[in-house]
Amino acid sequence: MTTQSIDPRTGKTFGPQLEDSDETQVRRACSDAERAGSVWGPLAPDRRAAVLETLADALDAQSDRLVLLADSETALGAARLTGELARTTFQIRMMADAVRAGSYTGPLVDEAVAGAPPAGHPEIRRLLVPLGPVAVYAASNFPFAFSVAGGDTASALAAGCTVVVKAHPGHPQTSEEVHGVLREALVSEGLPEGVIGMVRGFDAGSQLIQDPAIRAGAFTGSQRGGRALFDLAGGRPDPVPFYGELGSVNPVVVLPSAVARHDLPRDYVDSLLMGAGQFCTNPSLLFVPAGSSLVDAIVAEIATRSAGVLLYPGVVEHLESSVDRVASATGVEVLAGSRHHEAADGDNSLSRSPLLFGVKAAELLRDRTPLDTECFGPVGVVAQYETMAELLAVLATLDGALAGCVHGDADDGDARAVVAAVAERVGRVVWNGWPTGVGVNRAQHHGGPWPATTSPLHTSVGVTAIRRFLRPVAFQSVPAELLPVAAAGPESNPNLID
Amino acid sequence: MTTQSIDPRTGKTFGPQLEDSDETQVRRACSDAERAGSVWGPLAPDRRAAVLETLADALDAQSDRLVLLADSETALGAARLTGELARTTFQIRMMADAVRAGSYTGPLVDEAVAGAPPAGHPEIRRLLVPLGPVAVYAASNFPFAFSVAGGDTASALAAGCTVVVKAHPGHPQTSEEVHGVLREALVSEGLPEGVIGMVRGFDAGSQLIQDPAIRAGAFTGSQRGGRALFDLAGGRPDPVPFYGELGSVNPVVVLPSAVARHDLPRDYVDSLLMGAGQFCTNPSLLFVPAGSSLVDAIVAEIATRSAGVLLYPGVVEHLESSVDRVASATGVEVLAGSRHHEAADGDNSLSRSPLLFGVKAAELLRDRTPLDTECFGPVGVVAQYETMAELLAVLATLDGALAGCVHGDADDGDARAVVAAVAERVGRVVWNGWPTGVGVNRAQHHGGPWPATTSPLHTSVGVTAIRRFLRPVAFQSVPAELLPVAAAGPESNPNLID
């Protein structure tokens, strides 16, 4: 099997035919990663941080070339892709800062306590050590930030783990080029290329998570793909953790106290159609008070917007089947746009126009299809609720999601209950804002209950993403000079975060 | 099906026939736990800590009665069981202290940063919230500390989760009585009994981890049982985390610099035979320099020791098959004791005499059976190594284990490499000590790579055990008065640990 780039704007293939990795190549990438781990894992924190910064600098230096190539493969546009690459290198540098600060390398120490147990105990010095080589599955919709040099790779490297990336077929040349930049930077630092390996192809991806050298998996993509890999990771003779971010149907609630805000229709549609709607944080399920003029205003706003170009043919296919599913649900009607794409003669582009469904919130209690069908693309569902009790009843049945938003006034008597109901089902609650645009910072959490992720304890964005790739070891009465890892100070680490 | 107590000293059954929980009862326990969660989860930290202390006080008040009953079902002896109950209540109080200190309830806050992304971002306040009802599977060998009121229950409650315990059939009456004490204490505090539910029976255990209300599982027991439940947890339509501690073959290395220490044979045999060898931290694999007199001294020491009484018939059966497996491995010989138990007429007790196998370390590279066969009982394997290279080669092939020990002088030139090799394979490294006796403290780690546990990131002993039952939620620009959980201060939590 081979992979070739497709220009989403024309539907035409271009560039080299890239061969899938065969079994031998996958095995070699994993054993290279394992061998490289004996160099990368024990590096002193300062040195590891410096190498991460070298990787970021090398990517920034190639920004123009990489953005141009990624745009030709994804049609996401130069502005967005320039921003995304900046986000990617910002993220790598944030991880470098965390490594230098010792956010995860410092010890947690209990000094010895004299006397009999349970109060008495010997000295225990708990350190977090690298888990081992990590399989990183790149996403289609972020060719930089959730791909070869993305957050999973950055946090695994920060933890002291080496990485084997499974490249996404939606941007094969960009993956090659980014990987080339990283590899050269590693070599320039005197490090083995095996610190960041890469494989291509569907079968290679399945083999990768089952390779004996791999100690964890990290994935951003579809629910079907993520679940299949999660099952393979858990089904190994020696199961390994698998951190999958599988996308979600993100709820946004407009409370009566916010319904008259003039910016709402425009801001909602901006968020809904950003990147042609191809965000896992897309605000795809909007709850509005029944009978408000908001729905008409949104429909009018949608009518001013043009089609967006989807990433690759698989996205188009998946979107069409999701749209059919939602359309078939009880009480669902089309509010704006058309379910059927009619292309002009000779237009083979992957462009699709915005589509908005409407439904009464009460119907969702009878037929939950719109609640569990992610429409990955420029498609939204507006649900009109009659009463607060009805709204809360529907919110309680939501699938787990990455983000949820509430628009209202803080002194709205219902606001606290609605925020609480949303928090029960999501990993991030946004007040008077939109779910797209996940800030890269220390406290960020990009995760959530199943099916948003396979692992509700962990995030794929923010400094705490590092924790996914570390395991604790307690050193009992071990003299400092015999500790096998850096950061052997007697003090507990004041920077340690969770 | 019913369960009845067995006196391990006589092999005779006694006490009531306790019915297994049926499907309806398991479902009800789970829905009770879910409903109780809406009371227990939002409790203010001070109040939750106070209730935990009430539970500990109630158990301490019944110590004499509970110890007597547990001894009749386990034959572990009054001294050990009195200590174990003290450990159990100490552990609950330690969790209460952590709740009060806000070790996991405080926010991690990134203030808003003005400007465009990636540097600019809105305020993010990350809080850890309870995961939901937890299924706790009790262990046979710790009727208090890893059972109904044990570490898994204590840490789940501390996290704000309710619990449904699957009682262990090896001590059915003790489980009933402990549960009764906890239930009464909850009621005295005005809390629903559903905060700590309990079910009985093998099928009930399988149903429990698959119940829709259950959000996580915690287990201490055999590799076979733990793996089966892990597979059920991961195979759910909505997979849930499963924290299994499956026991292990714990390595102990005696370096040449320690071989002449006079206390070694006695201390080793003490640790090996403690609790009739029924500890998951049993030092079952001892590496000694070939040709040293240590082996003879150990054999002489073993000869002075009497038989130990095993917990229940399942342990005897499992031990016999493990012993047969190890005995059949290449190069394994019996150094002390006999493989075959010969009981006196009329002796139906579950007592078994100590047994020691010997093998050349080099043989373990050819036949690894002794490395992956846990003999849960008074059985050890002594492996003699010829060279440091040979020792390191064998250590690199060890299964993941809970603990590993190294005996030597700190200035022994090989000590650092051996400590590092052991640390690669275990969750706790002990210097010049023994693996049995896991201290209950903040930095403790009782875990390790597969097959020691199903989840190498987490511990079942120590304060960080709480983290298993919490999930992060990021609150973006949410006003403090709308936060659904306690600890809404503007400051990041200085106590937060990982």
Describe the protein.
Two copies of one chain form a homodimer. Chain A folds into two domains: 2-246 and 453-482, Aldehyde Dehydrogenase, Chain A, domain 1 (3-Layer(aba) Sandwich); 251-431, 3-Layer(aba) Sandwich (Aldehyde Dehydrogenase, Chain A, domain 2), CATH 3.40.309.10. In chain A, helix 2 crosses helix 6. The first copy, chain A, has 14 helices and 19 strands. The two termini of chain A are 42 Å apart. By secondary structure, chain A is α/β, with parallel strands linked by helices. The longest helix of chain A is centred in the N-terminal third of the chain and has 24 residues, at 78-101. At the A-B interface, helix 4, strand 3, strand 4, helix 8 and helix 14 of A face helix 4, strand 3, strand 4, helix 8 and helix 15 of B. Strand 19 of chain A pairs parallel with strand 18 of chain B, so a sheet runs across the interface.
For the record, the CATH class of the largest domain in chain A is Alpha Beta
Number of strands of chain A: 19
In CATH, what is the homologous superfamily of the largest domain in chain A?
Answer: Aldehyde Dehydrogenase, Chain A, domain 1
Biggest sheet statistics of chain A: 7 strands, mixed
Provide the structure class of chain A.
Answer: alpha/beta
Q: Can you tell me the CATH topology of the largest domain in chain A?
A: Aldehyde Dehydrogenase, Chain A, domain 1
Beta-strand proportion of chain A: 15-25%
Q: Helix count of chain A, per DSSP?
A: 14
Described by its quaternary structure, the protein is: homodimer
| Percentage of residues in helical conformation of chain A | 25-40%
